[in-house]
## 1
Amino acid sequence: MRTAGLRADERPSAMPMGRAGWGGVALDRPGYNARVLRNNAADAERALWKALRGRQIEGFRFRRQMPIAGYIADFACPDAGLVIELDGGQHFENVEYDEKRTGLLAAAGYRVVRYWNHDVMHRFDEVVADVCRQLRTATPSQPPPFAARKGEE
């Protein structure tokens, strides 16, 4: 793991020992954990991020590995209240955990949409089209945030 460029309190040796989340991911330092997850992204996450970043979809800004309600969402669009989760094979075994997590994210004001990693890699255009549909249904009466900026018509 790379530690260069991290403050002393962000390095693994300075990680506080405390409660641990599912899979051994400590939830005491969500910002640190989000950075680690971004740096170790799965192929499906990297592929979808290329389409989501830079307001490329409907003008909405997405954040990658965003801490929300004690969990780290794969992708989140705060303006639309949308969280996108990419699931691999381990999610077959953790249905209860995913349901609890979805409930807590919903309580924080987010709607959760899940896609399988396999679908992102093999049906990419369909996944992106569905994300567009989700964004349109999330905020039907509001213009995309990018278009609403001052001086941009």
## 2
Amino acid sequence: MFSLFFSLVHVYDASCRFGESACLKNVCWLEMVADTKGMVFRPGVYVASFRIMLINPNGFRNYPVMLRLDTSDGQHAEAERFLEGDQLRCGTVAPLRPVGDGWFDLDAGEFSVDTETPLTVSFTLREVDSDRWKSGLVIDCAKIELSNAIKHG
């Protein structure tokens, strides 16, 4: 099933986490889910994001991807981001942070931890409102990192 919708591409640059990424072929509905179950986080503010690259994106015009974050202690965040056209870098909510070599971190949201207790975090990237076929999105990873560890432009 993986090969029907995504193909694996080898990426040789410092911004790619694993050297192999998934390239979206053609899908009508897109949904990616990342979950941590009962992971213990140190106190701090964290950002959950997807590392992506856009290679001739198609099918995302006029339909933003929706990003959502939920935690087992009730924290919630929602955002949206256009991935194609003039709207790519303006007028949207979700930060799209360049990390080098054409890669971006697309933030699903922030959550905070006060004490070291197990926490389940779920975050998603989806676009299911359009009936257009989508392609050209490369996904490297889903990640959670401390917000103060993020390098800003």
## 3
Amino acid sequence: MPQTSIALARIAPSQTTALTDRATQLRAEGRDIISLSVGEPDFATPPHVVAAAKAALDAGDQARAYDLAEPLHPADIADLLELLGPAERRALASAITDLMSGEVIAELNDYVREDMIEALPAAVVAEIAEQLDTDDAVQLIEDLDEGDQQAIL
């Protein structure tokens, strides 16, 4: 049986899951709890933000694209990435590398997630993997080619 990588063993448990578990525990104790730890907004990324991001990317204005994405919830960043074409998506990912968190990656559909992982530097993917639940991190790393796996681990 293969051993788990030392780098993979350093991945921290999900704080979101811990909060959800705590809310569940408090409910079981009879407390009235409204948990806001899991989920995403019930609305799409505003169309004007999508249009402005596309315009900024088309103009090569990465600073403007960053400014538009920075205040967004991770689920909205994921939604924005999914609404863009492949070239725009990669340009936005390049502009907002430090905003590409485990939460954003977890919200992406499989196709876009794979595209983003290919577009991001290995060091950024490694940081993202450290933010994910162990199962999600393993799945993310397993989907990479062997060279990228070695670079990350």
